[in-house]
Design brief:
Residues 11-164 form the NadR/Ttd14 AAA domain. The chain is an alpha/beta fold and 179 residues long. The protein has one domain (10-177): Rossmann fold (3-Layer(aba) Sandwich). It has helices at residues 21-30, 39-49, 54-59, 61-77, 93-101, 107-114, 139-156, 168-177; strands at residues 10-14, 34-35, 85-88, 120-124, 160-163. It has a 5-stranded parallel β-sheet with strand order 2-3-1-4-5, with helices on both faces. Helix 4 (61-77) runs antiparallel to helix 5 (93-101) and helix 5 packs across helix 7. The protein starts with 9 loop residues before the first strand and ends with a helix.
Length: 179
């Protein structure tokens, strides 16, 4: 495990595409917890508002990954270490996506990874894959990305809790019971 200088009260909710992360995060927020947004979708929405198509945005893989990474770094830098926060994905997820896209790691990503600190990682078991305007992956990609995310967090030495497929409120309860 890398040297994690500051212990933070942050919990990551992650998994491959279409695993229910945002639904769980939204329910945690409704229960009064501090949560974060998922940056890939936010980046796509921001670029679409500037007149770019999803295909155009996703085709420039490195620019897309760096745009998302910049947002994630900025967001995590703005959170107080003592606050209990549930993050919709976190900086290490970028490692999995870089691997999936066969991109070399950027210096910015390597530096950011060295500074990460999370209390626990909640990896949501996969749900049936559903496509939407922001997703370019398919069911096979979902499986590969999901496993890459598991491998990344294991390799980094973070404690992982696997969250089974349950109704959304039961998933939230499962997470809170394992905080």
């Amino acid at each position: 495990m890398m040297n994690r200088s500051t212990q933070k009260n942050w919990y990551v909710v992650t998994g491959g595409p279409s695993t229910g992360k945002t639904t769980v995060i939204d329910l945690l927020q409704k229960q009064g917890y501090i949560t974060t947004i998922e940056h890939a979708r936010h980046y796509i929405d921001t670029m679409r508002n500037e007149g770019h198509s999803v295909e155009e945005i996703r085709n420039n893989k490195r620019k897309f990954q760096l745009g998302v990474l910049d947002m994630q770094i900025e967001q995590e830098a703005s959170i107080k270490a003592k606050d209990i926060v549930f993050l919709d994905r976190a900086i290490p997820d970028a490692l999995a996506y870089y691997q999936f896209l066969k991109l070399d790691y950027d210096e910015k990503l390597i530096k950011a990874i060295k500074e990460t600190s999370y209390k626990k990682i909640f990896i949501l078991d996969r749900l049936p894959f559903t496509k939407d305007y922001a997703r370019t992956e398919n069911k096979e990609d979902q499986k590969i990305i999901h496993q890459l995310i598991i491998d990344v967090y294991k390799d980094l030495g973070f404690p992982i809790v696997f969250v089974p497929v349950l109704p959304p409120l039961e998933r939230v309860k499962y997470i809170l019971d394992n905080v």
